[in-house]
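ugh ok so i messed up the first submission bc i forgot one of the chains. this is the corrected input, ALL of the components this time, i swear. 724 residues overall. if the numbers dont match what u have on ur side tell me asap before i send this to the collaborators (the ones from the other lab, u know who)
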Amino acid sequence: MEYIIGIILLLTFFGLAWYCISGNNLMIGFLIISIIWAVLSFAGTLGSSPAFLEENKILQFAGMKGVMDALNTIFQKAPEDWGSTLVNVCWGAWFGRVLMETGIASTLIRKTVELGGDKPMITIALLNIVTAIIFTAMMGAGPVIAIGVIVLPILMSLGIPKAIAMFSFMGSVCAGIYINPVIFAQCRAFFIEKDAVPEFNLGWYASKWGFVAMIILLITTTVLSGVYLTKSKTSHAWAATVRKSAQTKDAPFYTLILPIVPVALKIALNFSVIAGFVIAGFLALFLCGKMKGNFKENCQLVNKLFYDGVVDTAPLVGFLLTLPMFNKVAAYAAPYFKVLLGGIFPKNELVLCVVFTVLLFMGLFRGPLTLFGCGAATLGVVMRIGDFSLPFLYALFAIPTITVNIGSCITQSWVAWGLAYTKVESKDFLKLSIPNAYIAGILQYVAAFILLGSLGGNWLMSAILK
Amino acid sequence: MEEQFANLKPIFYGIFGKQKNIVYEKPKFAERKIADMLKELSKISLLDWERYAFSRDPLVGRISPYKRKEYMQKSWECGMEWADRLKSEYGNLSAEDLAKKLGMETEYPILPENTDRVLFAEFREPNNIKIYMDAVNKAKKYLFDGDIKGIFCDANIVDILLLHELFHSIEEKYKKEIYTRVEKIELWSIGFFHYKSNIIALSEIAAMGFAYKYSKITFSPYILDVLLVYGYSQNEASGLYEEIMELVDDNERKHDER
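and heres the new structure output, hopefully the right one now
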């Protein structure tokens, strides 16, 4: 019976992959699959062999109460626990809006361009670094678009072909996201509960692998932009660009440090991310003269920025609220997968890195390797079949999620916007971004294997999920 | 209220709909008639477009208002000089014949644009020019309006675009001597090392001057920015017009203060 359930579960997994790749709603998809997997896993215990049930304590429900407790854990406790991550997401989105409103982000970009001048390669390199730094703190489609409408016309005015400009910008945004505390908190929640393994925090992760991953992507994006640029012909375009933002006044010089304050405090002192956002956000508003109105007006401004920020992140929130249900139910489905795949699943970090490297393209189009798509289901299986360390597994999935999906795929909201804005054909963008995803991905997997591949003991998922 | 509903849309899609992407909310401007806008824009003297011309330059923050004026004048003159030079060299050729004479390969693709950035024409080194006809075709219908006819007379938009791009090809050919490429600004220095850069706006201004002189039009080619965007979005064109007028007014105010 457990084999039959395993096969049905596997078929539903492929069904979910097809559903996600077709661009359907992720929230509903994950809600349905959570229900199906719960029904299959629970019903499967009725006909499974005693040896199978004996081996898997998680499937021993001890009557109706046990089933109810399990259901409550899946459908109530799991999404509730994710609430704390959602709060970080909202504050991060607010901070992104503050950096836009105060003109700090745009000033940083303009000042950077003024250092590079008309030399496209120097300007690209400098802009990539600054963009990556900015997006260690900002996130969401709104901020990417707000910075994109400044950066992309500048790059194109330097004669850089639009596809390369777009590729370079999106790659550098993605590089910054590797150590973005909000994205880290979101992705971490895929693996473990908030309070579990406190040692696995942003500071530890960034110093062990996050910075390396970021630098690798930054370098490959910049170097490849240069390579593409030498192969392409410079263009001069007559185009009218409607200015989107009235914000052209430079923010004070000393405020340009503020975007990195929350991340720096978190990494250096393990200081609260939200407090970092609040301190840096209000400092930005005061120092840039945005709080000169009366108390009521200032409150309205803060409120409006919070509202806009939350809307920026809204499309993914529904998905991320059903995802914890799925993560939890995957624990009940895992024994069936283990019966089916346990014998053939790689047990070795190196083999897993090689397999994931080859299959990196499956991070595209919300496929089975990206956590912001069907990869969440893959993780549910991988996490419980093999016994790998938490940081290694995190890196294993972060690469297809961030480098491939967020940085290189046209299903990413801001990439889709960029294509429309620059009028670059999807295939032209993918021709540039996929080689980068593979080159950066290979190097990042090498780094993950060297830096995180041999962690054992308490870092192993078997110890954490006990 | 309507705005709040629009803002709630992504949440709705996130929960119930397809996984729709968030889109940029375009600012709303008071919409104006194209004839009224062009009439006002045509009153701006050729060199008073300077603030608008520099507003899209990445180095605008490094150029003083005084220097900007000087650059505007010299670049415009440079473009006109080259128009005269080519006319004396090749005779009074049409824009298309001139392009052929200069070895250019000219294409006229019909590429629909979105309104964030409307691309009119493009010169790709070494000898390819593309004139994007969708924008031109959309604008043509407005040229029958009596007031607009009075401004444009017999001007051919395609020729103006082509001539503008031809100037960039000339720049490439004569980059060691042409003003727009020889003039540089120092961005920073370390000891004896001085990092200098060209100013992109100079090329664009000179290309406008070249198109103006060669095609013998009586208005600044910068007007086309508003006309050609109008075909796609009256709102965006109105926004562009507002921005231009603000920049020009500000300039005039500074003139008066001095």
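quick check: The beta strands of chain B are 105-107, 117-124, 128-131, 185-190, 193-197. that seems consistent at least. Residues 32-257 of chain B form one domain.
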